[in-house]
Amino acid sequence: MASSIFNAPCTVPAVKAKTYFGLKPAVNNDLRFNVGKKTSIIGCPKRVFTVRASEKKDGPIKKLGLSDAECEAAVVAGNVPEAPPVPPRPAAPAGTPVVPSLPLSRRPRRNRKSPVMRASFQETSISPANFVYPLFIHEGEEDTPIGAMPGCYRLGWRHGLVEEVAKARDVGVNSIVLFPKVPDALKSSTGDEAYNDNGLVPRAIQLLKDKYPDLVIYTDVALDPYSSDGHDGIVREDGVIMNDETVYQLCKQAVSQARAGADVVSPSDMMDGRVGAIRKALDAEGFQHVSIMSYTAKYASSFYGPFREALESSPRFGDKKTYQMNPANYREALVEAHEDESEGADILLVKPGLPYLDIIRLLRDKSPLPIAAYQVSGEYSMIKAGGVLKMIDEERVMMESLMCLRRAGADIILTYFALQAARCLCGEKR
């Protein structure tokens, strides 16, 4: 609040009463300050100046016109200005029991008693720089809403994608990951469209890099969007997902994406040995600078449903349990992390995010590499649905969920809330 000075009656009582304000008056009611050879006398027969910071006044603040030396001399002479009275202690409600204070040497609530103190001691922070924005793209020109994911669209790669990236950059989100909705006619059992240099993803990467050279582009390395079977790998006639043959295809896909300008390739397939093979393939083609974010602990989760609707990539038969991890397993994540780290992964990712905070913390504690968390489509859609039904405060739950992922140890978070959360952090009105 602004400080203000106003006039108050100058009735000087006996010295012991101490009910005066401002500078302590001398016995003759005059204030005399001897400063070197100069003497200043301020007569105050009837009024003194009282300084009250709690009063709101319009216009400039009035001052006494004293120099610093005169103010110091007044204090040295014993004429010390008094502060406003200490406010009275708030009264407890009627009926509150009178009890002695607990003999506590530590009261943690002391560090939580005001917004400023809570902010001072906050252990975890979050910013738009921590977000990677997953974006769905398709060959069409119109942006098509995704029914199971309110607020998300299949973006036309020529226009809608560029516009969405511009919105994200405006609020500090400069990292995206692309997921393509591939025409059924281009899908095959071996997913050859995945490494077509003129395919949807390479074209989108080139377009974005031409427009925004400093944009960080992550890509998805897996066959499921390109497979007529909807699996992350090549399917043998008996239903077995072929590992090494799939890895061969993934290497070609990663090189194609790097050639288009991808900054980080992200194998999400969960085939054994694919990180090391992709690293060798990239290096052999001169892409030593391209990073690998490995989906290290990707669980066979039920939280992926809305994503598969977005890309129309559900498995044609069976499930993905022979290559994705069992949700009941904890130690197995260490096995996957050790292998990916030794094969040359630059970032380790845990998917899903919120239901697997223990896995995020496990990898954070055991690995020096950056840890990523994917807040998947099911997590996003549940928060959105709860907000629409007024069962929860969508914005608060959104921000709390992202903070929890950071607290668990995630350095970056792949989240469909990236744009909305960044706007919230920037204080932008929606």
UniProtKB/TrEMBL annotation:
<dbReference type="Pfam" id="PF00490">
    <property type="entry name" value="ALAD"/>
</dbReference>
<feature type="compositionally biased region" description="Low complexity">
    <location>
        <begin position="92"/>
        <end position="105"/>
    </location>
</feature>
<feature type="region of interest" description="Disordered">
    <location>
        <begin position="82"/>
        <end position="117"/>
    </location>
</feature>
<dbReference type="GO" id="GO:0005829">
    <property type="term" value="C:cytosol"/>
</dbReference>
<protein>
    <recommendedName>
        <fullName>Delta-aminolevulinic acid dehydratase</fullName>
        <ecNumber>4.2.1.24</ecNumber>
    </recommendedName>
</protein>
<dbReference type="GO" id="GO:0015995">
    <property type="term" value="P:chlorophyll biosynthetic process"/>
</dbReference>
<keyword id="KW-0627">Porphyrin biosynthesis</keyword>
<comment type="pathway">
    <text>Porphyrin-containing compound metabolism; protoporphyrin-IX biosynthesis; coproporphyrinogen-III from 5-aminolevulinate: step 1/4.</text>
</comment>
<keyword id="KW-0150">Chloroplast</keyword>
<feature type="compositionally biased region" description="Basic residues">
    <location>
        <begin position="106"/>
        <end position="115"/>
    </location>
</feature>
<keyword id="KW-0460">Magnesium</keyword>
<dbReference type="GO" id="GO:0009507">
    <property type="term" value="C:chloroplast"/>
</dbReference>
<dbReference type="GO" id="GO:0008270">
    <property type="term" value="F:zinc ion binding"/>
</dbReference>
<keyword id="KW-0350">Heme biosynthesis</keyword>
<keyword id="KW-0479">Metal-binding</keyword>
<comment type="subunit">
    <text>Homooctamer.</text>
</comment>
<keyword id="KW-0809">Transit peptide</keyword>
<dbReference type="InterPro" id="IPR030656">
    <property type="entry name" value="ALAD_AS"/>
</dbReference>
<dbReference type="InterPro" id="IPR001731">
    <property type="entry name" value="ALAD"/>
</dbReference>
<dbReference type="GO" id="GO:0006783">
    <property type="term" value="P:heme biosynthetic process"/>
</dbReference>
<keyword id="KW-0021">Allosteric enzyme</keyword>
<keyword id="KW-0456">Lyase</keyword>
<comment type="similarity">
    <text>Belongs to the ALAD family.</text>
</comment>
<comment type="function">
    <text>Catalyzes an early step in the biosynthesis of tetrapyrroles. Binds two molecules of 5-aminolevulinate per subunit, each at a distinct site, and catalyzes their condensation to form porphobilinogen.</text>
</comment>
<keyword id="KW-0934">Plastid</keyword>
<keyword id="KW-0149">Chlorophyll biosynthesis</keyword>
<feature type="compositionally biased region" description="Pro residues">
    <location>
        <begin position="82"/>
        <end position="91"/>
    </location>
</feature>
<dbReference type="GO" id="GO:0004655">
    <property type="term" value="F:porphobilinogen synthase activity"/>
</dbReference>
